[in-house]
């Protein structure tokens, strides 16, 4: 129990949402986190690492790496303090300046985490990239981000980076995680630098408004944007760790997000450390059997993943996780990135004994903003309720006019009131685009949603994806969720296809579950099912069977790509497309 306003008490795990929401103040975080010694400001790495290295958590495992071969390597909070200090000293030696950009291009290896935390300590800006990016997407991002230093592996350097170096005048150093010696004055060895670096580093004065993180968005709706966050964002990491992820000391948390995506930093690195729990990090990519066995072996208590992974597990109908594995330590599973169909929430309940908790946020918000809290009644298909400390509403947006809708169940744009610490401070080098996201004190998310009478938010779709058919506004997610309930459907993506008579026609791309035949009969069956469930006006009129639907690396369905292909238009930016 923590005291707030002296008279009120709030609990770690948000047992009484309404009360906490009513009394919450961000000042609470200022009391909980220590801030830099001598009042020298607020630094994410201090809160995540150094603070715990000085208290009773110093010998607690902060990060446990599971390598591809299943061997493990542990770093306690003390170890992590030393390693991140060493890396900060490396940056000092290389004369990197405060605010300059340090990029990473690696998989989930210890060097990535040490780079991230050392960079934050040093008060340079950390920017992770997906290691699967090809040379051009890498070039676009590092050049837009004015890269000073890049940490990568020898293989990725040879294959993807070497050819770009001439075109990157701001790039001063490349540090190779696996080189045993420096290759030149510019291409350096991580281990050599670290061996020579001192273990003590005094974090310089850090203003909470100092830039800390640069993340590129998923590129679902177009060219990815470079989103800038400041050290103050750690308040959101902390609060969401306590309330949404429900962290308690001794917890073992596993976040499966790729480190190149904002979730990989906010929850793959920062939030669990700030809350003093143990993070499990698996180097390998998705594999259902491996994943279930890691949950069991590592006694994972809290698992954070994405709808695409959950749907893949659901497809493996012959594995009953609760029967096949001992998952008694697992107390919650959370999901982000895409709408989580009600089906999946219920599947969680049936297969794990608790519903899967959906939550909503964006690169721009820096942390979870709407959530189903562990203590709250879950309405399957809903994103849940706003984070205490953040005002979220549904608004009608008309040009520069914004009107908050107070009636329940009315569809509109999801808007967030400025003033919470992790809201982004810039789209790098795109000031106009940034300004366009705000009307007065409201940030426009670009997503459509509605709020019910009990205050739960329901996702409708991205404003760009909404289908206008015969005078109806149809969100693709609503149609996809219905089709997912058909027993033969494994995955589905829905788009609007221009059609002169009705505006747009609803078309579904369907992946069938194994053992089902893709034929006319099946098409009729699925269309019939949808018509019965949702009415003929919004049910799909066209179905195409596909082997897979295109997704971003962060697991989001690229509907705009399906649409471009359907219409024979250029594919646009597909740098984040996951090869299937
Ligand atoms: P870009 O902005 O480049 O088009 P993106 O919006 O996909 O890409 P992210 O910031 O990674 O990039 O994703 C945030 C978006 O993901 C949200 O705006 C929303 O559309 C979707 N999203 C995230 N979580 C959920 C959720 N729980 N339910 C529904 N949609 C979600
Ligand atoms: Mg977006």
UniProtKB/TrEMBL annotation:
GO terms for molecular function: acetate-CoA ligase activity; ATP binding. It holds the Pfam family AMP-binding_C. GO terms for biological process: acetyl-CoA biosynthetic process. PROSITE patterns: AMP_BINDING. Residues 478-556 form the AMP-binding enzyme C-terminal domain. Keywords: Acetylation, ATP-binding, Ligase, Nucleotide-binding. One of its GO terms (cellular component) is cytosol. The keyword Phosphoprotein does not apply. The keyword Transferase does not apply. Residues 50-428 form the AMP-dependent synthetase/ligase domain. SUPFAM superfamilies: Acetyl-CoA synthetase-like. It is an enzyme of class 6 (ligase). Its EC number is 6.2.1.1. InterPro entries: AMP-bd_C (IPR025110), AMP-bd_C_sf (IPR045851), AMP-binding_CS (IPR020845), AMP-dep_synth/lig_dom (IPR000873), ANL_N_sf (IPR042099). This is acetate--CoA ligase. It comes from Flavobacterium frigoris.
């Amino acid at each position: 129990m923590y005291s707030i306003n002296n008279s009120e008490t709030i609990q770690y795990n948000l047992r009484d949402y309404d009360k906490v929401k009513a009394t919450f103040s961000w000042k609470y975080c200022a009391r909980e986190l220590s801030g830099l010694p001598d009042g020298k400001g607020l630094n994410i790495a201090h809160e995540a690492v150094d603070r715990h290295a000085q208290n009773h958590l110093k010998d607690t495992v902060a990060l446990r790496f599971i390598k591809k071969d299943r061997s493990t390597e542990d770093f306690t909070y003390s170890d992590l303090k030393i390693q991140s200090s060493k890396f900060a000293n490396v940056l000092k030696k290389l004369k990197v300046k405060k605010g300059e950009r340090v990029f990473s291009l690696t998989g989930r290896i210890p060097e990535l985490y040490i780079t991230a935390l050392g960079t934050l300590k040093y008060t340079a800006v950390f920017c992770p990239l997906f290691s699967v990016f090809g040379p051009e997407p890498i070039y676009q991002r590092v050049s837009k981000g004015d890269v000073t230093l890049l940490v990568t592996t020898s293989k990725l350097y040879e294959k993807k980076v070497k050819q770009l170096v001439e075109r990157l005048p701001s790039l001063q150093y490349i540090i190779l995680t696996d080189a045993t010696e420096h290759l030149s004055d510019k291409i350096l060895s991580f281990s050599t630098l670290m061996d020579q670096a001192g273990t003590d580093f005094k974090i310089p004065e850090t203003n909470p408004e100092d830039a800390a993180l640069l993340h590129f968005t998923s590129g679902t709706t177009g060219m990815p944007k470079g989103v800038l966050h400041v050290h103050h964002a750690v308040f959101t990491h902390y609060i969401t760790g306590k309330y949404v992820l429900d962290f308690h000391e001794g917890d073992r948390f596993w976040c499966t997000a790729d480190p190149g995506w904002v979730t990989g930093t906010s929850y793959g690195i920062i939030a669990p450390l700030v809350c003093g729990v143990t993070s499990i990090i698996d180097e390998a990519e998705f594999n259902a059997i491996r994943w279930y066995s890691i949950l069991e072996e590592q006694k994972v208590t809290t698992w954070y993943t994405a709808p695409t992974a959950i749907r893949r597990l659901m497809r493996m109908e012959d594995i009953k996780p609760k029967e096949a594995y001992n998952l008694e330590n697992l107390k919650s599973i959370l999901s982000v990135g895409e709408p989580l169909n009600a089906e999946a929430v219920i599947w969680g309940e049936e297969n794990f004994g608790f519903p899967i908790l959906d939550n909503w946020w964006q690169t721009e918000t820096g942390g979870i903003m709407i959530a189903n809290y562990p203590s709250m009644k879950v309405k399957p298909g809903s994103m849940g309720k706003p984070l205490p400390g953040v005002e979220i509403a549904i608004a009608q947006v008309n040009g520069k006019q914004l009107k908050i809708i107070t009636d329940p169940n009315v569809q509109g744009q999801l808007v967030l009131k400025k003033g919470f610490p992790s809201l982004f401070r810039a789209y790098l080098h795109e000031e106009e685009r940034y300004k366009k996201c705000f009307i007065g004190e409201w940030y426009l998310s670009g997503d459509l949603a509605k709020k019910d009478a009990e205050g739960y938010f329901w996702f409708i779709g991205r404003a760009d994806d909404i289908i206008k058919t015969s005078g109806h506004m149809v969100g693709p997610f609503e149609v996809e969720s219905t089709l997912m309930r058909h027993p033969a459907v494994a995955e589905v993506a829905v788009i609007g296809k221009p059609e002169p008579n009705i505006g747009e026609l609803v078309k579904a791309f369907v992946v069938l579950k194994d053992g089902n035949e893709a034929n006319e009969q099946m098409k009729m069956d699925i269309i019939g099912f949808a018509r019965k469930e949702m009415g003929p006006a919004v049910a799909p009129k066209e179905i195409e069977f596909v082997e897979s639907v295109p997704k971003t690396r962060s697991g989001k369905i690229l509907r705009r790509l399906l649409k471009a292909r359907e219409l024979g238009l250029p594919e646009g930016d597909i740098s984040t497309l996951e090869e299937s």
